[in-house]
Amino acid sequence: MADGAGHNERREAESVAGDVKHRRRVAQDVRAAREKLTSSTGLERAFETELVRLFAQYRVGAAIPLYVLAAAIAGAATTWLPIVTVAVWAALTLLAMTIMVVLARNFLRASEDDARTLGVWRRLFAMGEMLHGAAWAYLLQLLAQVPSEDMRIFVLFCSVMITAVVATLSATVPAAVYAGLAPILVVVGLATVTSGASQALMLAMMIASAQVFFVLLARHLYGSAVATLLSRAEKDALFVELEQAKANSDEARRRAEEANLAKSRFLATMSHELRTPLNAILGFSEVMKGEVFGPHASDSYREYSADIHASGQHLLNLINEILDLSRIEAGRYELNEEAIALAHVIDDCAHMMNLRAKAKGQVIRTHVDESLPRIWADERAIRQVVLNILSNAIKFTPQGGEITIKVGWTSSGGQYVAVKDTGPGIPEEEIPVVMSSFGRGTWAIKTAEQGSGLGLPIVKGLVDLHGGGFQLRSKPREGTEVIVTLPANRVMNALPPVAQEKKSAA
Predict the structure, then answer these.
(1) Of 336, 394, 387, 340, nearest to 364 (Cα)?
(2) What is the residue-wise DSSP string for 303-354?
(3) Least confident of 42-46, 161-165, 225-229, 336-340
(4) Per residue in 315-331, pLDDT tens?
(5) In the 8-state DSSP scheme, what is residue 480?
(6) Reduced to 3 states, what is the DSSP secondary structure of residue 278?
(7) Per mean pLDDT, which of 90-99, 183-192, 239-248, 280-289 is the most reliable?
(8) Distances in whole angstroms, Cα of residue 280 to Cα of each of 268, 270, 286, 322
(9) 297/300 Cα distance (integer angstroms)
(10) Which fold, 337-490?
């Protein structure tokens, strides 16, 4: 019953956690959809801002290399154009570059950008990029008027270089890419139409092909930037969820510690409050059962007194088991370790339980290796382990059954205690149930045997405190075997005799 209730509580907790997670995910989806509907690019507002910010950072970072590139091309252009014309073009180009740098720095210094401000900045950057592209297109238009083969190669180089610069630096704002490349394409087209020469047509086709290639490259860079932002957002969301989960875990741990402390205080108080009247009940019922002050007027009173005494004893055992299990689970069970002989403990426990076994016609057989050395352990805990295992074996073994106890060496040099009965056995799926606190198997419920379901959990807890191992083997109609092992480091091997030196004759 307790195991089923705990399972239902876990299912309810998992269901509540799943509902909370689903509501959080729905809220995130609704917020993302709202931002996409109010966005001009179909992305979330945070992504749009970050993309424009990347554009501004690229522009500021590439300012000096662009100034150097413009100066180098201006120096080369003086080969075909007058110096004054080239100087005018250089001044216009540097002005356009400076305007872009100023706009980018102003955007980066802005503390926050709402939807309208972000749209204004995007349009300003597109216009600035168009001005920058127009300055370079002006140079191409000047060069196109010079009838020289070397000039055509230089024009092709300049157009490809500027197209690559615009496509790579402005990839995160697609409108700026198109605005920056449009003036170059227009100038090249007009020059081709006015010239009509086949060489000019070939040059225009090469420039147009280069622009198409770099536009596709810009789109790919834009997609990569968006994917990177999405990945970063998912990672940030994951970090937030991890922080929230850690906070919830810390809160749950704090509540668990408070509940455990409250449970410990409750058990400490109730153990005293229950044991005081319970000892009086046991004492008086034992006096009445033994008819110390004279025989009862009715035999039923004697039976009732025995029942009261047995029930009180069972309740006292239950209280002791609950307290023991609570101390073990809380890590407050202290071991009073000493050197003990495992064979001696087994003989005493078998002798104590022999009367209960004989009452059911059962036989207890022991096979103990008398050569076993002592072990370093808590004798009271080891006795409780053996008594709990024997008590279960006697309880669930039918009339005329047999219980076998074996004590010997383990393969690793430790010692073991194995208790095997000829009872009905336990189905494999019920073994975790009987190993849980207050868990009882199907056979125990059918036979209505008295028991709290704490015997085996206490055994396993005490064995774990000794660093040992616990194993339960059982199959229906084949009996049950419980094996308890103690590690080799608890075995006290006999010390070799001290060699005494012979005194030399005087």
Answers:
(1) 394
(2) HHHHHHHHHHHHHHHHHHHHHHHHHHHTT-PPP-EEEE-HHHHHHHHHHHHH
(3) 42-46
(4) 877 777 777 777 777 66
(5) E
(6) helix
(7) 90-99
(8) 19, 16, 10, 21
(9) 9
(10) Heat Shock Protein 90 (3.30.565)
**Residue-level pLDDT at 3:** 44
Cα gap 97→505, rounded to integer Å: 113
Euclidean distance between the first and final Cα of the chain, in Å?
85
Contact in structure between 401 and 468 (CB atoms under 8 Å): no
Question: How far, rounded to the nearest angstrom, does the alpha carbon of residue 212 sit from its chain's CA centroid?
Answer: 48
Helix (H) or strand (E) segment spanning residue 73: helix 63-77
Q: What number is the average pLDDT over the span 485-495?
A: 80
**How many angstroms separate the CA atoms of 111 and 167, rounded?**
28
pLDDT given at position 276: 77
Query: Residue for token digits 């004279």?
Result: 294
Q: Where are the domains of the chain?
A: 38-333, 337-490
Alpha-carbon span 454 to 463, nearest angstrom:
14
The confidence score (pLDDT) of residue 5 equals 41
Angstrom distance (rounded) from CA 476 to CA 119 = 77
Which residues does 231 contact at the CB level (< 8 Å), separation at least 6?
none
Structure token pair of residue 321 = 């088991």
Q: Which amino acid is at 152?
A: R
Structure-block tokens of residue 302: 């004697």
* Tokens read off for 152: 């055509």
Contacts of 214 by beta carbon, 8 Å cutoff, 6+ apart: 163, 164, 166, 167, 168, 181
